[in-house]
Amino acid sequence: MSATVTLMHVAREAGVSPSTVSRILNGTANVTPDKRERVEAVIQRLNFAPNVQAQALANGRSFSVGVLTQKLSSAFYGETLAGIEQGLDGSPYHPLVVSGHWRAKQEQQALDLLMRRRVDALIVLGGVIEDAALQRVAAQVPLVAVGREVSGLPERCVLIDNHAGIRQVVAHLAGLGHRDIAYIGGDECQQDAVERREGFEDAVREMGLPFQPHLMLTGNYTEASGEQAAAELLASDLPFTALVCANDQMAFGARLSLYRRGLRVPEDISLTGFDDLFSSRYTTPPLTTVHQAVNELGQLAAETVLRLLAGEHPRMSPYVPQLVIRESTGPASGVPRTTPRGAH
Amino acid sequence: MSATVTLMHVAREAGVSPSTVSRILNGTANVTPDKRERVEAVIQRLNFAPNVQAQALANGRSFSVGVLTQKLSSAFYGETLAGIEQGLDGSPYHPLVVSGHWRAKQEQQALDLLMRRRVDALIVLGGVIEDAALQRVAAQVPLVAVGREVSGLPERCVLIDNHAGIRQVVAHLAGLGHRDIAYIGGDECQQDAVERREGFEDAVREMGLPFQPHLMLTGNYTEASGEQAAAELLASDLPFTALVCANDQMAFGARLSLYRRGLRVPEDISLTGFDDLFSSRYTTPPLTTVHQAVNELGQLAAETVLRLLAGEHPRMSPYVPQLVIRESTGPASGVPRTTPRGAH
DNA sequence: GACGATTTTGAAAGCGCTGTCAAGCGTAGG
DNA sequence: CCTACGCTTGACAGCGCTTTCAAAATCGTC
C-alpha cells in the first residue's frame, strides 16, 4: 500500500510552505494565482487528500455529526437516516451513525463512542436511554432528538403527536360506522407506544364508542407480534369490525393472520397502521395508516443541527402526523365478523 | 460547553506522565497497580474519553471501516449494514457509512470522503462506479465487495449466483405446470439485473418452455416500476400463468396491479420475487422468492475485512441463494388468465 | 525614487495522543 | 558491597494539519 501523501509533500513539490497549501485548501486567505495553480496541479498529480483526523485535531472540529439510531435495518429509521444524510448534504458535515438496538447499555456505549470521536453535534433517534445521559452529552455538544422527549431540552426535540395521529384513525373508523374496534399496541417501554394507546382510549371515549379493554392487546412493533396478537384476537371470538395497529409492521403481521382465517380486508375487517412505511402503499389492499414524514423529519433534524452549529437558536415544534386513507378501511359490516369464509 | 479533558489533564491530576496514562489506556506495557488505580480513578472522575482523532493521527490507524452503500433507506442494504455492524462488533473497528445512490459520481465522492477519513479498510455494497476507481482505492486499503464484481480482485468479492437463483424459480414454476411465464427485470445498468434476466432466459430454454420475449419487461427494481410493468403486461392481454420479478420490491408492485385487476395469487397467477426481503414473509399471500442471506453476507464481509486487517489472506467464494417456497405460487391454472373476476 | 500601508508568505508552535529511548529503580548474583 | 539485569517510568519527538505572528513582497502615493 503506497505511502500516503501529506500536505508537506505537496508543499515541497510545489515549492511553497505548508501554510500556503493549507490556505489554498481551506480558502483561509488570499494566495497569488500562480502559486494557487501550481499547488492545485501538484495536488492533482499526487492525488493528495487531506487527512481529516489531522484537520480535526488541529482546528478542533471533526465535521461529523453523530447519529444515534436504533436499528440499521429498520425501514422507519432508515428513511430518517436518509433524510439526515440529505439534510447534511452540501454542508461540510457528515453523519456518523451508530445503533443502540433499543438497549440502554448499548445506547450508552454508542454515545461514548461518538463522544470519543469528538462529533460536533448529535442527533438522537428514539431510544430508551435515560434523559440524564442525554443531558450530560448535550452539555458537551449541540443535540437534537427526534421522536423522543428529553426533559430539560424541550426545544431540541421533534415530538410526534401520536395522540392526534391515533385520534384521526379512530375518527375515520367511527365515521365508517365501526363501533367494535380492536387495538394492538406496542411495548410500552417505548414512549410512543404509551401515547398511542392512550390516544386510542381517549379517542374511543370521545367518539362515544364502547371502551372494550378485552379488545386491546400488546405486541412489540414487529410483524410477528402483530400476527400473533391478531391470531389471539380472532381465536377469542370476540366481535370486532376494525383492527387498529400501533404501527405498520404489526398491521402487516395482522394482515397475514386475517388472510389465514380467510377474512377479507376491508369487507370483513378494516385494518389500520401507523407510520406509513413505504411498503404500506403496496400491501394488499394498500394500508390506511398515519403518515409520518420520516424523511423530512430527518432533514429537519439535520438542518436544525446545522443551525445550532452556526450559532443560531432554532426551536423545534411537535409534528402532527396525517391520516392517509387507502383501501384497508371500509364501512363496518352489519354483523361483526360472523362467518369467516373458511380458514385458508 | 465544558472544555474537553485531555490525557494531559489526567496525567497531571494523577501525578504521572502522559506516557503512563497512554500505556494504561492501551495496555501497551506494565504499570504498577497503584498508579494504574490512581489513573483509572482520575479517568472516572474527570470522565475522560480519549480523542480518537488524535489516537488515529499518532498511531496511524483510525479503527474505522468505510462502508460504501447505495441507499440508507433500502431494506436490502439496511440489513447488510446491520450485518456489518454486527460482524464488526467486538472488534475495535467501527463502520463509517456513506451512500452513493447508484450514481458513479456520488460513489466517487463517497470514496474520496472515506479516504480522507483514512479508513483502515473498505466494504463496498453494489454500486455502479467503474472497477478502475475501486482498484485505485484497493491499492491503499484492504477492500471487500459484496454483490458486485471488481475485476482484478476476485477473492475480495462475494458474488451472488443470480443465475442459479433464478433457475430455481423457473424450475419450481415449471414443476407446477407453468409454461407461459412473464418476467419483469431490473435496470440493466446493474450487473445483477443482467444476470437475472440471462438466468431466466437460459432456464426457460433448459426447461423446454417456450421462450417468449414479449412477456419480458423491464423495471427499475422499485415497487412503482413493478406495478407499472405488471399493469402493461395485463393490459397487453398476452396469456401467462406466472410472473417472475427480478426482485421482491417489484413483486410487491406487481401484486398490487394483480389485486387491482381482481386476479388472485396464486390461483390465477403465480408470483415470485428475488431477495427475500423481510417483509416478503408478510405479503398477502406470503411471497415465494429467492432468499439471500443479506445479514449474513454483511457479517461475512465484516469478518473478512477483520481478517485482512489482521494480515491474513482470506478468499471469498460466490454465494448460492436458495429458493423459499411460500404461498404466492401454485399449480398452473388450466387456461392462462382467462376471466378476471372483474377489476377491483 | 522613497515611504508607509497592504497584502502575501513562511517559520514555528501547537492540537491530543503514541512510541521510542534512556534513565531510574529494585533485585539477584558474584 | 558492587555489578548486571529486568522492569517501570518520564522526556521528547513526531503524526498531518492549522493558525498566529512577523518578515517579505507588493502596491500606491507624493
Topology summary:
2 copies of one chain form a homodimer.
Chain A: H1 7-14, H2 18-26, H3 33-46, H4 52-59, E1 64-69, H5 75-88, E2 94-99, H6 104-116, E3 121-125, H7 131-138, E4 143-146, E5 157-158, H8 162-175, E6 181-185, H9 191-206, E7 216-218, H10 223-236, E8 242-245, H11 248-260, E9 270-272, E10 289-291, H12 294-309, E11 322-324
Parallel strand pairs in A: 1-2, 1-3, 3-4, 4-5, 6-7, 6-8, 8-9
Antiparallel strand pairs in A: 10-11
The structure holds a DNA duplex (30 and 30 nucleotides).
Q: Which secondary-structure class do the elements of chain A indicate?
A: alpha/beta
Kindly report how far apart the N and C termini of chain A lie.
61 Å
> How many structural domains can be distinguished in the coordinates of chain A?
3
How many extended strands of chain A? Answer: 11
Q: What is the CATH architecture descriptor of the largest domain in chain A?
A: 3-Layer(aba) Sandwich
Name the poorly predicted regions of chain A: 338-344
Q: Major sheet of chain A: size, sense and barrel closure? A: 5 strands, parallel
Approximate helicity band of chain A: 40-55%
Report the order of strands and helices of chain A.
HHHHEHEHEHEEHEHEHEHEEHE
> What is the molecular shape of chain A?
elongated
The CATH homologous superfamily of the largest domain in chain A: Response regulator
Q: Give the oligomer, counting copies of the same chain as homo and different chains as hetero.
A: homodimer
- Helical stretch count of chain A? 12
CATH topology of the largest domain in chain A: Rossmann fold
